[in-house]
Write a structure and sequence with these properties.
Strand content: 25-35%
Number of helices: 2
Shape: globular
Oligomer: single chain
Number of strands: 6
């Protein structure tokens, strides 16, 4: 990801065997990764913020309630100790509460403060 106004581009490596990226995300089924929240936060840098609980990560990371945070590739988190009403996220193809306007980057309410960080996303597939 590249944050506007910064020269650096931050990358993560996700080792996932699949026929294609489409086959991983098109059906909407969650496919977990095990990078952990601190690794996802490196995509944003020191400004990154995520709520402390839930931490559903991977492909199609979605909280159960339709209007809450989701990410095609990324992590969603919650301030309550459950996954019902997630309203923070880092990732690609994101949406949901508290704002649908940021589709790539970081949206969060707690941890490192309120953040609405839009980013340019790059996905490379080998």
């Amino acid at each position: 990801m590249r944050i506007p106004g910064e020269d650096k581009i931050n990358f993560l490596v996700i080792n996932q065997v699949a026929d294609s990226l489409h086959s991983l995300i098109a059906h909407g089924q969650h496919r977990p990764t095990s990078l952990r929240r601190d690794k996802w936060k490196t995509l944003i840098g020191f400004q990154a913020s995520l709520q402390p609980h839930c931490n559903i990560e991977g492909f199609n990371a979605i909280c159960p309630y339709d209007n809450h945070s989701k990410a095609r590739i990324g992590i969603v988190a919650n301030n309550q100790n459950d996954c019902n009403t997630c309203d923070s996220r880092i990732g690609f193809g994101t949406g949901g509460k508290p704002s649908n306007s940021d589709t790539c980057g970081n949206v969060a309410k707690i941890d490192n403060g309120y953040q609405y960080i839009r980013a340019m996303g790059y996905i490379f597939i080998l």
